[in-house]
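ENCODED BACKBONE
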Amino acid sequence: MSAWTEQNLGELVEILSGFAFDSKQFADSGEMPIIRIRDIIPGYSSTFYSGGYDPKYIIQDGDVLVGMDGEFNRARWRGGKALLNQRVCRISVSSKYLDEGYLFHFLPSALKAIEDATPFVTVKHLSVKSIRDIEIPLPPLEEQKRIADILDRAEALRAKRREALAQLDELTQSIFIEMFGDPVANPKGWQRVSFAELLTNIDSGWSPSCLDRPVEGKEWGVLKLSAVTRCEYIPTENKALPDNISPDPNLEVKQGDLLFTRKNTYQLVAACALVRETPPRLMMSDLIFRLRLRQDAKIDPNFLHQLLIFPTKRREIQKIAGGSAGSMPNISKARLNTIIIEIPPLSLQKEFAHRVEIIEKLKTAHKASLAELDELFSSLQYRAFRGELSRIHKTNEQSSEGVKT
């Protein structure tokens, strides 16, 4: 372990909390984009603000932003000049003893520790005080820059792999719109039916008090909301069921299931994921629905999944979410059943599903490579902030000198 000194982050940075801009003045076009939590990771915003504002809330490319609700994500902004909305903050280095790149790479582990320790009923909240209280190890400035450079290069490899995955997702969406058109506009005049006509049931999940860790071995577990939030099934996002609570096998997730998030923030509600494969003994939480299709329904699950997550269609579904002030919006079964679903010819849906299957195989290969890079990056990150990269570097230098001698 390193003998580096530690210092409160609040003594080294300035934190700007976003302003509560009036959402009534948000629009799909305009001069000034506005940054909300959902825009942090993508790095750009498609929502614009049309009212007056204080210039201090203007964000520039390269600024480090942190989301303060849900998952405490951090990223550098790259969407041009924009306004900082509430529940997002900017962290700027204010001390000559702290390198910005070093801070950027240190933040995720520190924020994850806060997230894991934060109790919540609906959604987790991060405070400015919690950020200021973070203790950060401070090696000499040159060592900070060296660590940042190593992690930057490792991160660049991961970014290329993620970009490849994003391009495959864009390809799927492009194929969808080429074959079917925008489902809300329905330019090809496909038949439309209510969701209720396609479903035999909408299953609800269960949220018992679970352990604060993922399942191990043959344990039963309950999926977290994040298992579906990205519109892609992530079975590792789960919590283990305690031994003293009996599982409900009827809620176990199976291959082919279509999962739907009924409750979340307005930006994240109505996510949908198709279960292509899954380990056994994982159950749905009560924030997740399972959509059961009728056997005689003329709709392919691959098509339906892409339809439900198509941007315009998802926004249409999000509009039916209700909820009291201060609570997360919720979509009821009754309202979900009223959603109108476009039904192209089944043969066309099957052709689309075949194309999606090819793309998914490519994605699986890229994900495996990304997982290896993630593991390498985590190892480097762990060593970096314990001072172990310095020792490795010195050992290598000494070995080289010995060879020269």
